[in-house]
Amino acid sequence: MPELPEVETVRRGLQEFIVGREIKAVEHDTPKSFPNADADVQRFLIGSKVKQVRRRAKVLLIDLSSEYTLVIHLKMTGQMVFRSSAAVFGAGHPNDSLVGELPDKTTRVTFTFTDGSRLFFNDQRKFGWVKLMPIIEVPNIDFMKKVGPEPLEADFTDRQFTERFHRRSKTSIKAALLDQTVVAGVGNIYADESLWGAKIHPKRLVASITEREFKALYKELRDVMNLAIEKGGSTDRNYVNAEGKKGSYIDFARVFRREGQPCPRCGTTIVKMRAAGRGTHICPKCQVIQ
DNA sequence: CACTTGACCTGTCCGC
DNA sequence: TGCGGACAGGTCAAGT
Description:
Number of strands: 10
Structural class: alpha+beta
């Protein structure tokens, strides 16, 4: 579930909490979660400091002073949670925190810093991973070579957005939106939300989408993702930020997970269907197949 | 080649 | 209450 806004929220938290800290130790429970953990860990991870935390699409990049990078994908249930040595978790609003004392049974990788603070990679379903590689190798990863442009970049225009879809003209607009090679960072939540905003049925073929509709979709996607970042992302089930706290965008969602409720625009009951192999939420009156 | 489907996992929820 | 099966959805490999 972590999509661009969720990963960006985690990035901002990590940038605040871990930059400058020196890694003292690392533990992992399964090779699947940290596939090449043994090879270069002693030389390029232990003893190095965190320089900066970047994001590309849904991928987190923790750059180290060793000129190596921790490349992290949260997939569906991954979490990156920082705890200082004297962590007080669950503080504030009673529902803020989804995770309690760490490590817990979902903890796959634990990074310990020299000051005693720790960074936990938790992942219930084990789809996510952490990899260590030289910074200069990151752009050579297949995914990085294929992934589309960042939709929230200031210089990303509606014209470029529309152009990107030409490569997938024969598929549905929802499948194309979810295709990371078209535009980076869109997942199920923001695909549904932006399609509702632009009044486009998810099963419409890309070739049938008009220029005007693409412009509307471009605006809706950017608006909804920016709002989601402002709200700290969407916590549907597992997602938490770098403090272990939930995001609140789901409270502002118009159709996602709102089947049976009235469309905020026209009052028609929102329906859940299947499109592009995913659970898909639409207003059957606002979003029609012509 | 373009596109769709299934696999990867675990926890939750629903119906019997 | 227990239990099987469907479902959750990001990405890649395999299939059409």
